[in-house]
Recover the amino acids of this structure.
C-alpha cells in the first residue's frame, strides 16, 4: 500500500516538474498542466439591493442569489463560468445599524472587479501559485482611492480546481484535515 502511494506521488511530482517548464511568468499552469477551471459565479442578494452603488467596483456576476451563501454549491443552483486564471470566493460581513450581515461573492478572478485586484497583493501572497484564504483590507485589495476609502476587511480564498470556489473556507479546511488524517492512518496501519 505504502509503495503504491509512493509510486503515485512520484508520478504526480514528476508530471508537475516536467510541466513547470511550460509555465510563462504571470500565467498560471499554461500548457498541458492547467487549462483553467469552472468557477461558480454569484453574489449574495444583499449586493443586488445596492448594485447601483457597487457597479463601479464589481463586475456583474452570472446571478444574484442567496444560494451563493451555501457551504456547498452545485451547478444546478448557481451558474458556472470557465476561468483561465483562478477562482475566487470572497466573504464580508458589513455592520449595518449594529447588525452583521454576511455576503459572498464568487467568480473567476478576472471577472470580479472592474479595475482588477491589486497586483502587488496577488504577487506577494502568490495567488497564482497556490490555493489560499486570508483577510485583506478592501481599500488595498480593490485599489480604492479618494472618497471610496474603506478600512474594513474582506476574506478572500483563491483556488484552481473545478468548482473549488463553491465551498466555504471552513468546509475546505475540514475536508483537508480529513484527507490528511485518513492518509496518515492508512500509512500508519498499512
Amino acid at each position: 500500500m505504502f509503495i503504491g502511494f509512493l509510486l503515485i506521488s512520484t508520478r504526480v511530482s514528476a508530471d508537475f516538474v516536467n510541466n513547470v517548464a511550460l509555465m510563462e511568468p504571470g500565467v498560471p499552469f499554461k500548457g498541458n498542466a492547467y487549462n483553467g477551471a469552472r468557477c461558480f459565479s454569484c453574489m449574495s442578494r444583499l449586493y443586488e439591493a445596492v448594485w447601483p452603488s457597487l457597479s463601479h467596483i464589481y463586475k456583474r456576476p452570472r446571478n444574484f442569489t442567496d444560494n451563493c451563501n451555501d457551504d456547498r454549491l452545485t451547478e444546478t443552483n448557481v451558474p458556472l463560468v470557465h476561468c483561465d486564471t483562478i477562482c475566487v470566493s470572497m466573504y464580508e460581513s458589513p455592520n449595518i445599524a449594529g447588525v452583521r450581515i454576511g455576503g459572498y461573492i464568487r467568480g473567476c478572478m478576472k471577472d470580479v472587479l472592474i479595475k482588477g485586484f491589486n497586483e502587488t497583493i496577488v504577487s506577494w501572497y502568490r495567488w497564482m501559485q497556490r490555493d489560499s484564504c486570508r483577510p485583506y483590507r478592501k481599500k488595498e485589495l480593490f485599489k480604492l482611492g479618494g472618497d471610496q476609502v474603506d478600512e474594513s476587511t474582506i476574506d478572500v480564498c483563491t483556488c484552481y480546481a473545478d468548482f473549488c470556489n463553491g465551498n466555504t473556507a471552513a468546509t475546505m479546511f475540514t475536508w483537508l484535515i480529513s484527507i490528511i488524517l485518513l492518509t496518515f492512518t492508512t500509512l500508519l496501519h498499512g
About this structure: Residues 1-32, 170-174 have pLDDT under 50 and may be disordered. The CA atoms of residues 47 and 61 lie 10 Å apart. The radius of gyration is 19 Å. Residues 28-189 form one domain.
